[in-house]
Input
Amino acid sequence: MNVHIKSPGAATTRYIARRHGMLIDGKWRQAANGAVSQIMDPGLGKVIADVPCGTGADVDLAVAAARRAFEDGPWRMMKPNERSKLIWRLADLIEHHADTIAELESINNGMPVAVAKAGHVGPSVDLIRYTAGWPTKLTGETIPVSSPGEWHAYTLREPVGVVGQIVPWNGPLMMAAWKIAPALAAGCTIVLKPAEQTPLTALYLAELALEAGFPKGVFNVVLGGAEVGAAMASHPDIDKIAFTGSTRTGRSIATAAAATNLKRVSLELGGKSPVIVFPDADLSLAIPGVASGIFSNAGQICTAGSRVYAHESVFDRLVDGVASAAQSLKVGYGLAEGSQMGPLISSTQLERVSSMTAQGVREGASVVTGGEAMESDGYFYKPTILAGLNPQMSVVREEIFGPVLSVLRYTDDDLDGIARQANDSPYGLAASIFTQNLQVAHKMAARLRAGTIGINRHFVGDSAMPFGGFRQSGWGRERGREVFDSYLETKAIASPL
Output
């Protein structure tokens, strides 16, 4: 792949080249056993940095620091408006360093740098600022009780304690922001584990948290792989675990949490999100909506609209339009001028996407466009559309997590029947509906079993909107007011007068 690659800025280059550590109790540390892991640039297929590779021993140190900061430190007792100021200050620092953070995210994750800045750094700043307003509003209630006599009864909302947070590689900065901001606003202390493939922006975020003035031990970052995640899930002194990733790993975390101290668990897991295109859909909205829903971030999005149900009257025009959009996408290195879609995260993920697509073809799917890897040192896969499908094919039922779209045809206008097809999945994370008839749109939205539903667009991304899934797509909600249910305990107090 011959592309003109823009060099990263001097600040980005210096940051990548430095000696990296884990943040524990306000200090940068190497792994207790001295181990390191190599960090790749997926667009070039080469190593760019070494970072510590932690173990359970490092988790123990971080949890102890977080416990001290929660029980003895100033964080839990800090006035709500002071917590708000620090959280807002963190957002300001992220915004100030937006160019460097976007370049780091692009180099380490592969996404185009313009997408990283506008679609990840900007929304992270917005989410943190939105959340900064909440500490003064996390109130209890006075309760009118019916017991005999006069009473003063009320509730308090208190932080759950030390929280472990595990975030994925497909949106490293934004997923970290979604987790740390509400936990900090609630008065919790944090041990964050970024994905082992993409730790750079989490480390940069931790550095900015120190600069913002967060007390030591409030925000800790431990690097490593499955061993670190397992140690967090089973740690007896972590009060709550928040995880974003695969459904299989989510099950393991829930099992480990239950087996130790029954810690609180919130899970944002996989998806196989349906897109329903009605006969009257405005194709000038539906075609780019479907294309962006599956090809953004090379399809490595849990909400990706990976299976489309299109009415037979618009099926061919929709498929032709999305295929044209796929073929015109500029697939390239994240720092290359004009890149619109980057690589997959790793050679392992490239092999997974390739093999799952090939399996679909063996089962009878036809390739409209794409269907193969690109010749490159990086891990690039062509934007792909599969047709000629039936609902039982693996490409229709299983999450591929790549730029592969399955398009199915339906023939009638029975909303219940269409909804049954869309709901025929173990997942229930997101869905979207394209129609000019708002009555139909809202009737269908009521029938779909998904946590986030878009009408005439696929992604719904506002900081105030709760996000989460039904069924095997997870437990609990991120963003909005609902996220605080995961980070607060409710205490009921009553006194007879």
Notes: The radius of gyration is 23 Å. The mean pLDDT is 96.
